[in-house]
Amino acid sequence: MSLDRIDIAILDALQKDGRIPNAALAERVGLSQSACSRRLDNLEKSGVIRGYHARLSNAALGHQMTAIVHISLSGQFEKTLSEFEAAIKRCPNVLSCHLMSGEYDYILRIAAKDLADYERIHKEWLTAMPHVTKINSSFALREIIDRTALGMKPELA
């Protein structure tokens, strides 16, 4: 989907306030409410907008620790990858999982209450994953940036 300056303005406004009413969004981007609603519908149907959610604080929910985990598998065969990916999706503490190029096959971001909770996750989940041959864990000392919004620039249109 090709984005024009109005689409980009809509996306920028929604990234700043996902709960903005359609009337306010339409006014902000210079459209009628019906035209704004149609554009928003097109952005959703095309997959540019993947969904809406509340951004929660892991720390406020008792998950004080973030672990960055590098995983190596026994091979990169399609069956190996798909079996690992199906299993990792079931682990509730995994916040993100990325298939990587380079030394490790996957990088995970995991939320844990503390070191003992991470040990539980490691034992019950990570070591039980199919085809895992190596797990390398690092622990975040402090979060500097955790963006969910992309910088939207009109020249991208």
Summarize the structure.
The chain is α+β, with helices and mostly antiparallel strands and 157 residues long. 34% of the residues lie in helices and 19% in strands.
Q: Would you give an account of this structure?
A:
This protein is of the alpha+beta class and 157 residues long. Helix content is 34%, strand content 19%. The chain contains five helices and four strands, in the order H-H-H-E-H-E-E-H-E. A four-stranded antiparallel sheet has the order 2-3-1-4. Helix 1 packs across helix 2 (22-29) and helix 2 packs across helix 3 (33-45). The mean pLDDT is 94.
SSE layout and pairings?
Layout: H1 5-16, H2 22-29, H3 33-45, E1 65-73, H4 78-88, E2 94-99, E3 106-112, H5 115-124, E4 132-139
Antiparallel strand pairs: 1-3, 1-4, 2-3
Total DSSP helices: 5
- Report the mean per-residue pLDDT as an integer: 94
Helix-and-strand structural type: alpha+beta
Distance between the termini: 10 Å
- Order of strands, main sheet, comes to 2-3-1-4
